[in-house]
Amino acid sequence: MERREQPDLLQVEFAGSLVKGKQYTTQAGEVMRGTLRPITGAEEQSVSGVRLAGDGGLLFEPAAAQPEGSTVELRFALDQPTVSPAVLITSSGVTLGVHHLNLMLWARGEWHGWPGGEDVFGVDTHHTLSVRIIRSDEGSVQMEARLDGRDMGYLEFGPVSDQALFSFGSDFEGASGLVGEVHGVRVAVASSEWRWQPTTPVIDVETELTATEAADLAGLHPANYQNVSPSDSPAAIIHKASLLRPTPEQAVWQQEGLTAFIHFGINAFYDQEWGHGTEDPGRFLPSDIDPDAWVRVLRDAGFRTTVITLKHHDGFCLWPSRYTDHSVKASSWASGGGDIARLFVEAAHRYGMKVGFYLSPADSNAELQGTFGNGSQRSPRTIPTLTADDDRAGQELQTFEYHATDYGALFLNTLYEILTEYGTVHEVWFDGAKATQALPNTTTTPRSTT
């Protein structure tokens, strides 16, 4: 009979949100059957994982105990050789750690060197440690370990306690902590296969530049990107990678952690994912709508930014745009004065949530009206282009000059509306889809939306 792989209890690479004093919130694709939380509050989430400074770690309490043992995997990096032993993994009464650059085992009340575990770690090197722990009915333990694709052998000892908790980077109280970064943690049943181990040992790559390479690369400076050519050696590529720096805007965005997406619009009233531009705005009749609850729940779950879809590819606008009748203003909801964008932004401000708007450059309704995908050529346009009964007439508006198609001008005018009438907008999403007509279409978007 074919063995069926059992589901993981935990598989997290920290794409979600780790809030001090609260449990970790997973992102799509991650698994957490139980609770994972910081132990002391000194832990700091980074772009690539969780930073530990020796006084904290991560504690996982599974929803169901694993009396037969478990498979545990840890991805991490050390900042420096440890002066005193630091805990890597504690599981099923067994603790593995690192001392200097050696793999260690806690047994019988003291630390012991793992056989063959001398100088197996590197500083600023990504490591993957995998452990399979199988418990007998009498409480003794058989342990198998693998590090970076290298088989570290078996050990048998015991009996030990049947503690059902798991810690990573420190003991259960946050002591004997690791100085470095945890990139991923995984817990599964004892019969589970290794998931993160390479099939072959990691081979060291020569990182020293030749004299010629050093001279050729001497003129490079830290920047947002570096050019890599097929002739570059691994050492040259590593050197170029070390010079990569995010822009200030990218750095801020990376530190945001979790960003939520809210998809809501006319399609909710047609029970369909994607509209066609033919939907009747009169059917947009939300009852008991509560953007305040949307934002509050997301805030409490650890989200810092929320993006709402103000217009999807069907073209229906959730704000009363001056440039189309295919919007909330054509609905009897709120007597034609409804504005989802306004309600959402007000709720976001109440809860300290950063605001993001999604505005699709595609527009099926505009295509039906003969604007999107009509093959028009670019021509000079002033944005905003005031309408015949524009309520902004007479105001001193900041204007922009673009060469745009018919639809490009329409799109830029709607973008101008949502970026100038709802306060600070931290993020804008542009998605898109092709017109169904054969004629080409181009959409002009500004180089900066801030």
Automatic annotation (TrEMBL):
SUPFAM superfamilies, A to Z: (Trans)glycosidases
Name the record gives this protein: alpha-L-fucosidase
Keywords for the protein's UniProt record, in alphabetical order: Glycosidase, Hydrolase, Signal
EC number(s) from the headed UniProt entry: 3.2.1.51
Family to which this protein belongs: Belongs to the glycosyl hydrolase 29 family.
Domain of life the protein comes from: Bacteria
SMART domains linked to this entry: Alpha_L_fucos (SM00812)
GO cellular component term, pick one: lysosome
An annotated Gene Ontology molecular function: alpha-L-fucosidase activity
Domain spans labelled Glycoside hydrolase family 29 N-terminal: 282-436
Pfam families, per the entry: Alpha_L_fucos (PF01120)
